[in-house]
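Supplementary Methods S3. Input chains for the assembly prediction are listed below.
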Amino acid sequence: MESHQVLIVGGGLAGLRAAIAVADAGRDVAVMSQVHPVRSHSVAAQGGINAPLGNAEGGQDDSWERHAYDTVKGSDFLADQDVVEVMAREAAEVIYELEGWGAPFSRTPEGRIAQRPFGGADFPRTCYAADKTGRLLMHTLYEQSLRRRIGLYPEWMVLSLVVEDGLCLGAVAYHMLTGELACLAAASVVFATGGYGQIYGRSTNSQFNTGSGMAQAYYTGVPLKDMEFVQFHPTTLMGSNILVTEAARGEGGYLINNKGERFMKDYVPKLMELGPRDIVARAIQTEINEGRCFDDGSVYLDLRHLGEKNIVERLPEMRSNCLHSLGIDPVKRPIPVQPGQHYSMGGIDCNVDGETVVKGFYAVGECACASVHGANRLGGNSLLDTVVFGRRVGRKIAQAETAKSSSPNGKALERAMGRVERRLKELFSGSGDEEPAQLRADLKDTMIEKCGIFRDGVVLKEALSKVTELQGRYKKLRAIRGGRKFNLDLTRAYELGGMLDLAEVIVRGALAREESRGAHYRMDFKARDDVRWLKHTMVQHALDGSHFSYKPVAVTRWKPEVRKY
Amino acid sequence: MAAERQVTLEVFRFDPEVDKGPRYDSFTMNVKKGMTVMEGLLHILDVQDHSLALRFACREGVCGSCAMFINGSYRLACQTQLEDLKGRRVWVGPLPHMPVIRDLVVDMAPFFEKVGMVMPWLEALSAPSGKEHLQSPQQRSIINEAVDCILCGICHSSCPMTWTKKDYLGPAALTKAFRFVADSRDVAGANRLALVNSEDGVWRCRTVFNCVEACPKNINPTDAIESLRRMLVVGRRKSR
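Predicted structure tokens for the full assembly:
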């Protein structure tokens, strides 16, 4: 049995940043990832990463306090302010660190890191590398992981986190390339497994973003937090729902309805297109719902006035996506867009150092909820979240006693592997006739139609009964075909169970929360209700279903106020 | 409205541990406007043949997972629309000259190994300001193209030199080397140049330009390799 002091699951920005911190502290660490690190979904982040460097014109008065305040206000006061403070205080340092490791940021004429305006921020705070920021940071961290010779298990998919008596013991994993099932002993396991976008129709997320890490943590009894808060990005390409970066609006793009109006004047006249994502997404959806959209159901993102030079230099990837997907050149024509699922504010409940209720088990990045994004994440804060908290988790583990000891509990791991093996055999010998692809399609439709941007108690109940029905049908899957090697039918059927259970807690959380806050908007409860609902939703898995409870929000410096822009 | 066009995807199937030899399976489907080869393959996986093996992830040309050989060209399946491919038959195979694991999935490990051999990371002194290293937009522009590489493996697979000389570093690894040698912040250029100054380094390139033609990100690896050669011959400063 392989054994490591620290096992990181997920090779995106959060996972690699954590691994680098552990390696720099001289501890043995390995990264296990379902895809090669440079294929991680972090590469799809385009617009940038926030830090109050003050490099751009008009940014000189920016400060970590202003960054923290914008983040808290953007979160509709659901973020834990002590954690937000840590993120904002450490932002500049981690950016300079990335730059020193080779991150090829775009530059100001003076040679400093270039910054641009983003939604919901009072200053131009978003550091960028054209519109390829996530990808170029991802490659930088991959390069640094090579420099440190960090052990990598690429295309190993973790199927089960192993916890016994409140102690983390390791993981059971499937090697895609050989079909081998193996258990790995590790006293410290970090989940940096990303979001669950594929639960939703119209998602910007990668095909493998199924929330499997969140589901596995949930099954071991670790609570999930604030799962009803789902971010819908205002602008995704019509049809393919490929992300159109917020930088397009940061650089000055207009949103236009079918009357030719910049309709954001009716929603947030001061910020216009640079309102926070929840507000802009609702505005676009309102225009669509009320018929002020174009024939295909889109609104237009018009960049033509920015000129070819600006578009080519600053938004090249966005332009290439428009050309490839729609055959539209944004230099010459407006881009048809619609909102789409983009990010999970909720996730595995953890503290500022990624620690969870299970000793030795940590979470970081999109799969985690510390919480810095609260009810609505600001653009440019997710990349920051991955590197600030990746570094903190890594450093915390390096100090922890559990990371030093390594007497693997072989028997418990063997038992866990036996359970996974039985589950795979069950899937191969299924005698039902339900088609997993059909269930997945039904789930995606249900979530985007009934638990999307605008929610309503009656409709959420429909969503819940549909998800419950799908959970029932999941028990009657047809037999999975083929052998063990690179069997996508197998892995996708395995993950579908977790997707359905995550969908259930998202819908239940949304149904319970009788208020509107950030990205969670209830047509039947349109106001924020701090008296009843200024609290985090916690959900725990039990044999008889999901158990909900609530815990207070950390309010330190900024008293909740009406969120006005 | 125009009738939906039907296309048949001829898909390479092979499991070296099980099959005597490779074969192509035919899958016919209706093509909707905007539908990519990737979507066609996912349709096969969902509906027609659940046993198909392929890599896919971002569907927007940035993760490099879906590099394939489509109708005789090196393409990213997610960036190739079925509508744009003329004819009713579309041939889809794995990246040529790379060991097949199963169907469209090839072994990328030897490729990543080469990339790892060129010191593919920045070696910089601490910035004097304690902040960022200053780098002018002009200095940054020298590496604009090279940093765009998504490590999809297409150039490596397309290069005739890699077909016969397994030890050749190949266009992607050498472009990576160039990316750091040419970075104004880097201080390890001489070491890196020494690593590529060999028969299986920059001197193996025969300027066939297959990599230039094949690269889905429009990078010119031959130019990067030529730059490294110039630096080795006339020195780094003069070659600029």
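Chain B touches chain A through 60 residues (CB under 8 Å). The radius of gyration of chain B is 21 Å.
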